[in-house]
Design a protein that fits this description.
alpha/beta; 7-stranded mixed beta sheet; 8 helices; 31% helix
């Protein structure tokens, strides 16, 4: 059996690959990055890990809850907070309580790395996925199935001969975001004790979110991570570094920080999150090509991406096991037919030997 090739080593691709591997199917994960994680990205800044992609995750689904419980026992994740601050122009900072948000001592990437333990993961840049009468191929390599665990636009660009019409099903739009990490010698943003863990910034043209990374990590480091609005990010996608001064100024303005940061880093996410909605948890075509990720399912978030990948893995296991059983059944039928033909041939020879050939005329 040719291996199943999963392209993309974010949480959805790794979740899918885990299901396939646990079912005993051969699977290889391919990712172009030097480190896995996708948009659950972490970088080492200010001598510590900082989350520059996904900022936290929540847990509502039982399947994901079991995985998170195992990760918590292993020390990979920890509950962070159930309360953030809401910052609105002309209004006092206000706390907003919600579900428990989970963080990671070593960065969000560590979640994906833990889930990928035991999987075959290869660094490579996939150019094209094609289909012919013999099946699917990834850059010419045969595959029994292919999973594209990535945003629609990236998946559509990989569709080659025999698959290009499927691009019409991969039309969901995605918004860009710029992620600023800034650090200071000391913490300067208490807002009179009202800034709790992270802040949703309402009605601001530049900023949508600010996280206290020291709170999230649990080490109290004077590090902030701020995400821009899509409107601010869009014109800066070709040259994100040009937006750095304005992003820093926006953080200082919103939090009332008069001292410039001692260090900064700006991360561009051209496809940060999907727009609109989509109820289907994944795409699986008759050819065996699947697409999954946070662009599928009712809500775009870490849990949704995991569940999308796991559900696609379940569907592929069922399909491949059914196809394998059908092949076994067909082989049994063929063997029985050959056996009957052989038995009939021996019977005819015996009848002729006795001189009763007229019995065979019918």
């Amino acid at each position: 059996m040719d291996p199943i090739i999963v392209v993309g080593a974010g949480i959805s691709g790794v979740a899918c690959a885990r299901v396939l591997a646990e079912a005993g199917l051969p699977v290889t994960v391919v990712d172009r990055g030097r480190r896995i994680g996708g948009r659950m990205a972490s970088r080492r800044l200010a001598e510590r890990p900082v989350d520059t992609g996904a900022q936290y995750f929540t847990v509502t689904d039982d399947r994901f809850a079991r995985v998170v419980a195992d990760l918590e026992s292993a020390g990979v994740v920890r509950p962070w907070t159930d309360t953030f601050t809401v910052l609105s122009s002309g209004a006092a900072p206000a706390p907003k309580q919600g579900p428990v948000r989970w963080g990671t001592p070593a960065g969000m990437r560590s979640v994906v790395e833990a889930l990928a333990s035991g999987l075959e993961v290869r660094e490579d840049a996939v150019e094209v996925v094609t289909a012919d009468p013999e099946g699917l191929r990834v850059d010419g390599t045969p595959a029994s199935a292919v999973v594209l665990a990535m945003p629609d636009g990236q998946a559509a660009r990989l569709l080659g001969e025999g698959l290009s019409p499927l691009a019409a099903d991969l039309s969901r739009e995605w918004e860009p975001v710029l992620a600023l990490t800034a650090w200071w010698p000391t913490r300067l943003w208490d807002l009179d004790g009202a800034f709790v863990a992270g802040a949703f910034v309402n009605d601001d043209p530049d900023l949508a979110w600010i996280a206290d990374d020291g709170s999230r990590r649990g080490d109290g480091a004077p590090v902030l991570v701020a995400h821009s609005t899509p409107t601010f990010a869009a014109p800066h996608v070709p040259d994100p570094q040009a937006a750095l001064p304005a992003m820093v100024a926006a953080v200082q303005r919103v939090l009332g920080i008069s001292v410039p940061p001692s260090g900064t880093h700006l991360q561009r996410w051209s496809m940060a999150r999907p727009t609109g909605s989509r109820d289907e948890p994944f795409l699986l075509t008759p050819s065996g090509l699947g697409v999954c990720g946070d662009g599928w399912g009712p809500v775009s978030k870490v849990e949704g991406a995991f569940l999308s990948g796991a559900a696609l893995g379940d569907a592929l296991v069922t399909r491949l096991e059914t196809e394998a059983q059908e092949r076994r059944d067909a082989q049994i039928r063929a063997d029985l037919a050959r056996a009957r033909a052989a038995d009939q041939g021996e019977e005819h020879a015996f009848v002729r030997q006795l001189g009763f050939e007229e019995l065979l005329e019918d």
